[in-house]
Amino acid sequence: MRPQMRWKLCWENELELSDHTELAEFFRKTYGPTGTFNARPFEGGHSWAGARPELRVIGYDAHGVAAHMGLLRRFIRVGDADLLVAELGLWGVRPDLEGLGLNHSIRVMYPVLQQLGVPFAFGAVRHALYKLVGRLCRNGLGTIVAGVRVRSTLSDVYLNLPPTRTEDVLVVVFPIGRPMSEWPSGTLIERNGPEL
């Protein structure tokens, strides 16, 4: 039986301290099983890990935060083309609800993406999430773009690390204002900022 979900769409400025605290706990529990390093950014009430989202879709059930997706509009470079996108990140579904939340969160976010007038939305996830993201892309809602790496700046400066990192991740593109055929070709996406 599917749990009753209540969805909240909110701009970052609308979140209260209690919202950030609850979201930080959600992310620690959701990302923690993938490694303690992945949960560390959410210590101290941080509800973001790299770049801070401007808009969030948060799903709640009787037990609190159940699912989350953040959005940040930015220009990226794909090959030689600069492109305005809505980056989707901070994707999460509480472990006991896996298979139920992400599809619903993109469906809640999709009309907002259309209102924002962006040509594309894109996200980057670990290859281990291929099956989950594949379900999200069924029916032509999105496309998994293979063979693309993403270069980002680190969210903090470390004297012992280079200022950028290039990752081999799974890139997912959602055509919003333009058809998928207009997504630029290229094997490298330059975020020109930290990941969301």
Could you walk me through the main structural features you see in this protein, from its secondary elements to its overall organization?
With 196 residues, this protein is an alpha+beta fold. It has one domain (6-190): 3-Layer(aba) Sandwich (Aminopeptidase). Helix content is 22%, strand content 35%. The chain contains four helices and ten strands; from the N terminus they run E-H-H-E-E-E-H-E-H-E-E-E-E-E. It has helices spanning 17-31, 36-39, 101-116, 130-137, and strands spanning 6-11, 55-61, 64-78, 81-93, 120-125, 143-145, 149-153, 164-168, 170-175, 188-190. Strands 1, 2, 3, 4, 5, 6, 7, 8, 9 and 10 form a ten-stranded mixed sheet that branches. The model has no long low-confidence stretch (mean pLDDT 89).
Considering the chains and any ligands shown, give keywords for the structure.
single chain, 196 residues, alpha+beta, Aminopeptidase, 4 helices, 10 strands
List the helices and strands and how they pair.
Blueprint lengths: L5 E6 L5 H15 L4 H4 L15 E7 L2 E15 L2 E13 L7 H16 L3 E6 L4 H8 L5 E3 L3 E5 L10 E5 L1 E6 L12 E3 L6
Parallel strand pairs: 4-5, 7-10
Antiparallel strand pairs: 1-2, 2-3, 3-4, 3-10, 5-9, 6-9, 7-8
